[in-house]
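Continuing from the previous page...

OK, I double-checked the sequence for Acyltransferase 3 domain-containing protein against my notes and this is the correct one:
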Amino acid sequence: MYLKLFKRVVSKGTYRPEIDGLRFIAIIAVLIFHVDAFLTLYMDKASALSSLWFTGHYGVPLFFSISGFVLSSQLLKTKKFSYKQYLIRRIERIEPPFLITTIVFYLLLSFRDGFDQEKNYSLFRVLTYTSNFDTNLINVVTWSLEIEVVFYLLLPLLYLLAKDTIWKWVLLGLCTFVFSQFYRLPFLTTYFHWFAIGIIIAILETKKTSSFSYKLLGQTITLLCLILFFGLAHYETLLIIEIVQPILLFFFLYGVLIQKYFLKYLSFTSFTIVGGACYIIYLIHFQVISVTGHLLIPIIAHREILALVLVVITTLLCLMAFPVLERPFMKKGWWKIKS
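Thanks. Re-ran it with the corrected sequence; updated C-alpha cells here:
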C-alpha cells in the first residue's frame, strides 16, 4: 500500500519500467557527480575515485536522449496531434514541482542571506527559463531543464519537417552539431544531437527490426557501450565527447529499447521507483547534498564511505518528497475541478 505512493502515475499508454530503469542510471550518475564535487570542495582529502565519479555528469545527456525517445514515441503514436494539448500536458507535469521548489529555495536563501536585487533578478531568470544566459543563484541544476523545455517546444515543429524519416533527423542533428562548434550558445543547438539519438531510436522501434542472432554478444556490446560512455568521458576531447560518446549511447539504447536486452534488470522495483521520481530528485538533490553533507563530514572521516552514504541518504530523502511534490502532478488534468 505505502509502496504505491512512490510509484509513478501513468496517464496514457503502457507503462515501460525499463525506461525508468534508464532514468535510474542517469539520476544516480548525476548524484554521484554532485556528491563528489561537494566533497572535493569541503573536504581536504583527495579521492582516488574522483576521476571516475567525475564522469557522472554524463547522466544529463542520457536524460536528453530518454526525453527524445519518450516524446517522439508519443508523437509517432498520436493520430490527431494537438499542439495546445501537448503544451498543457508539459506544463501541468513539469511546472508545479519546478515552481514550488524554486520559490522555496529562493525564500530559504533570502531569509538566510537577506533579500536583494541580485536574488530577485536570478529568480526572474530561473522562472523564465533564461538563467543559462546569466547567473543562477537559486538552483544551479535547472540549466538542463531549460534545455529540455526548449526541446519540448520545438519537437512538434521539427517533427513537421522530418516526420519519421531517419536521415532527416540525422541531418538535423549534424547541422546543429556543426553550428554549435562555431557558436557555443547555452541553448538547444549545443545538445540537440543527444535528443536526436532518442528520436531515431523511437523511429526505429516503429519499424520491423530483426533480433540480433547472437544474444550474448549483443548484451556484451550493449553493456560495454554503457561502461565506455561514462568511462571515456574522463578524456574530454572533441573526438570522444562529440563523436564517440553519442555513438556509444546510441548503441546502448538500441540494445535496451530495440533489442530488449537487460529489461529484467532495468525493471527492478527499486530502480523503477528511483527512476520514476528522477524529476523531483533532480530538482532538490543539490540542496539535500549540501545540508546532509555538512552534517555528516564531522562524523564520517573516510571520503569514499561518506560519498556512498551521501548518495544513499540523498536518494532516500528526495524520494520522501516525491508523493507530495511530484506524484500528484503526474495525473493528466489534475488541476481540473471535478463536478
